[in-house]
Design a protein that fits this description.
This is Ig-like domain-containing protein. Residues 1-90 form the Ig-like domain. Keywords: Adaptive immunity, Immunity, Immunoglobulin. The protein is an all-beta fold. Helices cover 0% and strands 39% of the residues. It has strands spanning 2-4, 16-21, 35-40, 47-51, 55-56, 64-69, 72-77, 87-92, 97-98, 101-102, 113-114, 117-121, 132-134. The chain has a four-stranded antiparallel beta sheet with strand order 1-2-7-6, with no helix packed on it. A four-stranded antiparallel beta sheet has the order 5-4-3-8, with no helix packed on it. It has a three-stranded antiparallel beta sheet with strand order 11-12-13, with no helix packed on it. A hairpin with a 2-residue loop joins strand 9 and strand 10. The chain is globular and about 40 Å long. The chain starts with a strand and ends in a 5-residue tail after the last strand.
């Protein structure tokens, strides 16, 4: 997975977009495309914004939108706000969002790579929280 641009400055109120490219199609055999976008702020776990290319996760502002198919995807922010500053990642994991918590992957799956960096993946089970952490082994 690769993203462009690697960094950008945006004037508040202006729109912006980030592109994500995969070396192979992300269309899953079940007909879904499991491409998600995350926002991470310093000292915080990544926050899920968009899953399955264009679906908003609960509570995410409609200023954020996702689009794309196959190997090319885009995250758009219609009106940038100061609070939107952070690191954005695209990630693909063949999992669905079930219930109120995002289920990144089942325990037997290998941890995914988050934005080209290592990540561990915690499954959302019951009322447990789940998030991906950078810095662990990844394959």
């Amino acid at each position: 997975m690769s993203q462009t641009p690697l960094s950008l400055s945006v004037i508040p109120g202006e729109p912006t977009s980030i592109s994500c490219s995969s070396s192979q199609s992300l269309l899953h055999s079940d007909g879904n495309t499991y491409l998600s976008w995350y926002q991470q702020k310093p000292g915080q776990a990544p926050k899920l914004l968009i899953y399955q290319v264009s679906k908003h996760f609960s509570g995410v502002s409609d200023r954020f939108s996702g689009s794309g198919s196959g190997t090319e995807f885009t995250l758009r922010i219609s009106r940038m706000e100061a609070k939107d500053a952070g690191v954005y990642y695209c990630i693909t994991v063949p999992c669905k969002v079930n219930g109120p918590l995002p289920q990144w992957c089942s325990p037997e799956q290998k941890p995914p790579c988050l934005g080209g960096q290592a990540a561990t993946c915690a499954a959302a089970l019951g009322n447990s929280s789940s998030h991906c952490l950078r810095g662990s082994s990844c394959s």
